[in-house]
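User: Here's a structure from my thesis project, written as structure tokens. My advisor, Dr. K., wants to see whether a designed sequence matches the one we expressed. Can you design one independently, without my sequence as a hint?
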């Protein structure tokens, strides 16, 4: 059972997409991850981009915890429909889903860049080069001091970050590592 951990929808169940194509982040990992994000003070009022949304567990957790807006990107149409149902069932009106591949969804960044938090939980079989390309493509979406949280297998190496994204630090939770990084515009680098 997947559920929202805390916030306005805390304790409520999430539907998961049919089939075996998604791997929802465990409640334990999500709880630890969001504790870290709250410590970094990036959730309340944040504009969030959830890439490879799957069941929507990460983005909907952010919405439940007072994010101002959440855009969930999921290429699988059945999974995207499940996310839509979860949004409606939970009454999280600040969340919306785009049924598209991540690369296509990132092709038209907002002007000005306004994303405060990126949640990225790609399938574990996505290679490091493909992940690096996605992290580069998300760069034009980032507001100053935006935080990125990238979930990977604990056996995966550190992601390759764009030049103006600095590692805050990894956190390992069993077989999962979440890499936290911050966008520091070129002129702000010390």
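Assistant: Designed independently from the structure alone:
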């Amino acid at each position: 059972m997947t559920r929202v951990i805390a916030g306005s929808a805390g304790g409520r169940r999430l539907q998961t997409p049919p089939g075996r194509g998604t791997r929802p982040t465990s409640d334990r990992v999500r709880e630890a991850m969001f504790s870290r994000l709250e410590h970094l003070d990036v959730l309340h009022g944040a504009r969030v981009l959830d890439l490879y949304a799957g069941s929507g567990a990460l983005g909907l957790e952010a919405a439940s915890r007072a994010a101002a807006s959440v855009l969930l990107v999921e290429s699988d149409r059945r999974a995207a429909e499940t996310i839509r149902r979860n949004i409606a069932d939970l009454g999280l009106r600040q969340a919306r889903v785009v049924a598209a591949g991540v690369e296509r969804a990132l092709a038209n960044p907002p002007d000005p860049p306004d994303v405060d938090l990126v949640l990225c939980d790609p399938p574990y079989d996505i290679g490091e080069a493909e992940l690096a390309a996605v992290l580069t493509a998300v760069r034009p979406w980032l507001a100053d001091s935006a935080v990125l949280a990238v979930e990977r297998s604990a056996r995966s190496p550190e992601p390759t970050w764009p030049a103006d994204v600095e590692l805050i630090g990894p956190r390992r939770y069993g077989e999962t590592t979440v890499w936290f990084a911050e966008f520091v515009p070129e002129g702000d680098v010390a």
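When you compare it with your expressed construct, this may help: Helices lie at 27-39, 57-64, 77-90, 102-105, 128-138.
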